[in-house]
Amino acid sequence: MSSRIASDEGFITLFHRLPIACILTRVSDNEVLAINPAFEQLFGWRAEDIISHSSADIPAWSSQQQREQLLETVNREGRIDQFETRFRCRDGELKPCLLYAELIDVSGQACRLLMAHDISDRITSEHALKRSEAKFAALFQDSPEPYMLFEKQSAQIAEINRSFTELFGYQAADIVGKTALEIGLWRHPEKRPATIAKLLRDNRLRNEPIDFVTQDGHVLHCEASSNFILIGDERRTLTSLKDVTEQKQVEARIKHQAFHDALTDLPNRLLLHDRIHQHLALGERHGLSCALLFFDLDHFKRINDSLGHSCGDAVLQEVSQRLLGRVRRADTVARLGGDEFVVLLTGLKGDHPQVAEQARLSAEQLLHAVAAPMTIKGHNLQLSCSIGIALASQHGDTPEDLLKHADTALYGVKANGRNSIAFFEPQMQIVVSQRLQLETELRQALVEQQFCLHYQPQIDARGQRVIGAEALLRWQHPDKGLIGPGTFMHVLEESGMILQAGHWVLLQACHFIARLLGECKLAPDSFSLSVNISPRQFRQSDFVAQVDAAVRESGIPANCLKLEITESMVIQNIKDTVSKMHELRAMGIRFAIDDFGTGYSSLSYLKRLPVDLLKIDQSFIHDCAQEGNDAEIVRAIIAMARSLKLELIAEGVETAEQLAFLQQQDCHAYQGYLFSPAVAEEPFLQFILPAQSNIDAHESR
Ligand SMILES: Nc1nc2c(ncn2[C@@H]2O[C@H](COP(=O)(O)O[C@H]3[C@@H](O)[C@H](n4cnc5c(=O)[nH]c(N)nc54)O[C@@H]3COP(=O)(O)O)[C@@H](O)[C@H]2O)c(=O)[nH]1
């Protein structure tokens, strides 16, 4: 401290105690008069390094230019606030400082008091902030997620990033300064106030589902997350968006698939159930009724089996379109699977008879719609269908009951010949339960082997010789005794159990032939056993292999086995049938056309078939001796067989007159009650052991 200012004691004390670094210089010659301890401590300089030197010479200034600038301002204006510079410390470090300088009078001398405030921390944090702002800017711009920055107050867009531009198509120049509403970003602007309220309440948004619209008008399903942030002094809303459009579409697809049939895209059972539920509730409220129409395409399996599944699928699609085309928008057409469709007619008004009448009229229209000819993959088809109807409240109050009762009514239509409609009636349930009971018992019968074969002899009337037999299925029911196939064959067919039963029959028949040839010493050329083959059995892709295996396993000559098929079976899929017949024929298996005369009886298809024998149907035999139409038909069949060089056998021959007529026409082979009904294995053996003596014995009875 210079002696010339030492007398101003109050100032000196204050000067030395000030916690801020101070330096005092004389204006007239710029000589440094004093520095305080805070100065020494901050910059490391000692008093002797500084005091008495001209301020231009002191080493603390890092820039003379700045020093002169500062002095000039202070001299001119008497003071300077916040002059930023760097002071060199004794150890060489340049320390950022904020300088305050003022002209003061100290003991009558004009002096400059310069105070230096260390701003190293502020500069460091400013740098850190700058770095973090730069990082934020880089993150914001380069983020793969679309980002938007809004002015908090005005909600104007302040910035968008590249990903936002890529996703939405907007360039920053197009939208900065505008609100999302102004540019039409919201798909549902009416939802914005609630979303903003939520943001303000929670101070953030997390994965808020919002639909936006892109610049070119596409809808984007997004999840938006928002936070308030401070950038500089500005309060901003930072919003990141997650585009979940694809995810939503996948979810929607999965949901759609869960409630719709994949082939026709019609509602499935689940959705139908839901719709029935809704309409029952609505109906109750508004006094309206609804009706359930349960559809089944008649003999649809034949289309699948004969023309293939892709054709069957196309038929189902065509039927679904026809049904959709005939109902109102409020009605539902559903597919439950296979060839089962359900139509839910809704909004039916009036009392019970009026509602029933509306349902009946609609059902008839739908029946006709299905029955109109259709061309599927080049095939001209004409279908028919059966419809069972259940009416809400009259026939059920729940979806389950209505579906069950419409199905029961459908069963009633099918039992009465199909191609028609029927309303549910309580007694129909008895028929359904009986049918179910029969099906259950038949399954049990297959497991417990309650089936057996009976054999009806086939005779050559010229020598009364047994030339063969027809194997006929019987069911040895544990309570009801022996049951003929007329009672259960259709159930085996419809349920598919015929495949297992038919295979069993085939094996049994082959083993029976083996016993006849082995134990009874029958000559293979003198006897054949006929086995009835059901259409479903024949259509199996491995049918030929099954027959081959049965023949091989039993070790019989293949020509002892004769397969009986019907004309209708051949017609259903002539290509496949003929090819299988040729394969089996090549193995030595023989074929008979059963019930001949009742079907197409066409020469043209008969010529194409590898057939050995025609069986004249018993319906023509019954009255053939009366010389009426049946006699003519029998004559025509015999002539046809002769021209095609086919064997013949008449079935159902019950009287000597019938046999005499047949023999007059040169048809000598027959089977029927006249000789014997079908009998069990043991009695059958009596006819052929020894063959001739048994026939004699039979004649003498
Ligand atoms: N797929 C299979 N179908 C089979 C099998 N076993 C039988 N069937 C089919 O059932 C139909 C009925 O058979 P069934 O009740 O045994 O009747 C046969 C004879 O008993 C009966 N018949 C024989 N002679 C007479 C007669 O003089 N009068 C008269 N009223 N009926 C008589 O005819 C039936 C044999 O007919 P068909 O088969 O046309 O030769 C039967 O039609 C078979 O289709 C089987 O294992 N698999």
UniProtKB/TrEMBL annotation:
Enzyme's top EC category: hydrolase
GGDEF domain ranges (all copies): 288-426
Keywords assigned: c-di-GMP
Statement: the UniProt record of this protein carries the keyword ATP-binding: no
Any one biological process term the GO annotation gives: cellular response to nitric oxide
Species in which this protein is naturally found: Halopseudomonas laoshanensis
Annotated GO MF terms: cyclic-guanylate-specific phosphodiesterase activity
Domain named EAL: residues: 435-692
Membrane-spanning intervals of the chain: none
Keyword Phosphoprotein: no
InterPro entries, per database record: Biofilm_reg_signaling (IPR052155), EAL_dom (IPR001633), EAL_sf (IPR035919), GGDEF_dom (IPR000160), Nucleotide_cyclase (IPR029787), PAC (IPR001610), PAS (IPR000014), PAS-like_dom_sf (IPR035965)
Stated name of the protein: cyclic-guanylate-specific phosphodiesterase
EC number annotated for this UniProt entry: 3.1.4.52
Reaction catalysed by this enzyme: 3',3'-c-di-GMP + H2O = 5'-phosphoguanylyl(3'->5')guanosine + H(+)
Cited Pfam families: EAL, GGDEF, PAS_9
Protein localization: Cell inner membrane
Essential cofactor(s): Mg(2+)
GO CC entries: plasma membrane
Residues annotated as domain PAS: 132-208
Broad class of the protein's primary localization: membrane
